[in-house]
């Protein structure tokens, strides 16, 4: 940053991020160059020498490491120079090899962690470079080569549309900025070009609202507004919920009607059997037990078979419908989820149908005219 163009605020603590020398091409023989940097101070606006704020005296260089330049062949070293003046005893001394055929920057910066930059990588990226989770690879970031360790993978990520030539790496922004600022001037600034912000109570995140707080945005998208706009279309608003509700009601109605009709027809054809059972002394409870066992076996077998076949058939149908206009798979893919509350409600309604049907059949069998049923059986 340019101290003259944008002087820092002296109210907050300041520290030196980096000090670099821009090596320009000039007519000089290659050789070893040494530069000495002493105290770095800041003066408040309108203040004099007595108001100077000491930022870095360079009495110790343990916090710093050398900037090796873009090409890495400058053999830059930083040491303490014994100056022993009224401002202190030591200063920072930067030594490097000058080469007139290369333009670079050398100096010192805050010491970085020797650990590689940890990232998450898309599966397409790993397939392209033939790497695996846990591998450490060199990666060119911000005009320099950094050591990157792949700690995990993913298929989908918000805002990322996977493709053969589309790859994505996810890293911590603060760590990435620190690792990518190793070569001042040569490396550019790492800035976010898209930011996701959560809702702020009592405020609308408009462009003016963000700019008042120092955030300049070329375009602002509000998720609630987009969803409201999409939901204003009745066809879109109904979408899957309407289709699934109609399907659910139709299947439930047809199931109940089928079970009732099956039970009624079975009762018409088996009236003679229950007439004989009643003449043998079957009580009303025994008739209810026999009818209940038969109907329970039918409905349990049907529910079990329907449940077992419904899950894979549902996933198969969802996969067939999850296509775009050109026939490719939608991104992100549709997932088949089971609403167990709806399933339990279906089971509850079927249980009510079962109880009602058994009660109706038991009442029908208990009121059979035995003499008439037996005569019909003789015919």
In summary, what is this structure?
This protein has 9 helices and 12 strands. The chain has 379 residues and is of the alpha+beta class.
Description:
The chain is α+β, with helices and mostly antiparallel strands. It has 9 helices and 12 strands. The protein has helices spanning 123-129, 173-180, 207-212, 223-231, 234-269, 271-279, 284-321, 340-366, 370-378, and strands spanning 18-23, 31-37, 40-42, 53-56, 64-67, 77-85, 88-98, 104-110, 117-122, 136-141, 144-154, 169-170. A 4-stranded mixed β-sheet has the order 10-11-9-12. A 3-stranded antiparallel β-sheet has the order 1-8-5, with no helix packed on it. A 3-stranded antiparallel β-sheet has the order 2-7-6, with no helix packed on it. A hairpin with a 2-residue loop joins strand 10 (136-141) and strand 11. Helix 5 (234-269) packs parallel to helix 8 (340-366). It is elongated and about 125 Å long. The model has no long low-confidence stretch (mean pLDDT 77).
């Amino acid at each position: 940053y340019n101290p003259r163009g944008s002087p820092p605020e002296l109210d907050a603590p300041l520290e030196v991020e980096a000090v670099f020398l821009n090596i320009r091409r000039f007519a000089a023989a290659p050789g070893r160059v040494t530069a000495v940097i002493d105290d770095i101070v800041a003066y408040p606006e309108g203040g004099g020498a007595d108001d100077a704020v000491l930022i870095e005296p360079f009495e110790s260089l343990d916090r710093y490491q050398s900037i090796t330049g873009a090409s890495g062949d400058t053999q830059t070293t930083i040491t303490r120079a014994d100056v022993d003046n009224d401002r202190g005893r030591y200063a920072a001394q930067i030594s490097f090899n000058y080469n007139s055929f290369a333009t670079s920057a050398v100096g010192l910066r805050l010491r970085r962690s020797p650990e590689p930059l940890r990232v998450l990588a898309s599966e397409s990226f790993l397939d392209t470079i033939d790497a695996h989770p846990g591998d450490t690879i060199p990666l060119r970031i911000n005009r320099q080569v950094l050591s990157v360790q792949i700690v995990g993978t993913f298929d989908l990520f918000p805002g990322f549309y996977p493709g053969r030539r589309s790859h994505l790496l996810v890293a911590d922004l603060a760590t990435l900025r620190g690792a990518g600022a190793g070569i001042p001037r040569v490396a550019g600034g790492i800035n976010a070009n898209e930011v996701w912000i959560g809702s702020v109570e009592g405020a609308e995140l408009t462009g003016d609202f963000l700019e008042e707080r120092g955030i300049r945005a070329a375009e602002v998208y509000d998720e609630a507004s987009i969803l409201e706009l999409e939901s204003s279309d009745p066809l879109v608003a109904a979408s899957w919920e309407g289709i699934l509700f109609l399907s659910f009601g139709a299947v439930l109605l047809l199931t109940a009607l089928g079970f009732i009709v099956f039970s009624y027809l079975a009762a018409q054809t088996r009236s003679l059997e229950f007439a004989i059972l009643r003449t043998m002394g079957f009580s009303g409870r025994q008739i209810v037990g026999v009818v209940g066992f038969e109907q329970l076996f039918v409905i349990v077998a049907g529910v079990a078979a329907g449940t077992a076949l419904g899950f894979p058939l549902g996933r198969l149908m969802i996969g067939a419908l999850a296509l775009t206009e050109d026939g490719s798979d939608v991104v992100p893919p549709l997932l088949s989820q089971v609403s167990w509350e709806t399933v339990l409600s279906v089971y509850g309604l079927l249980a009510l149908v079962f109880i009602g049907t058994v009660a109706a059949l038991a009442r029908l069998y208990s009121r059979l005219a035995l003499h008439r049923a037996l005569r019909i059986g003789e015919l």
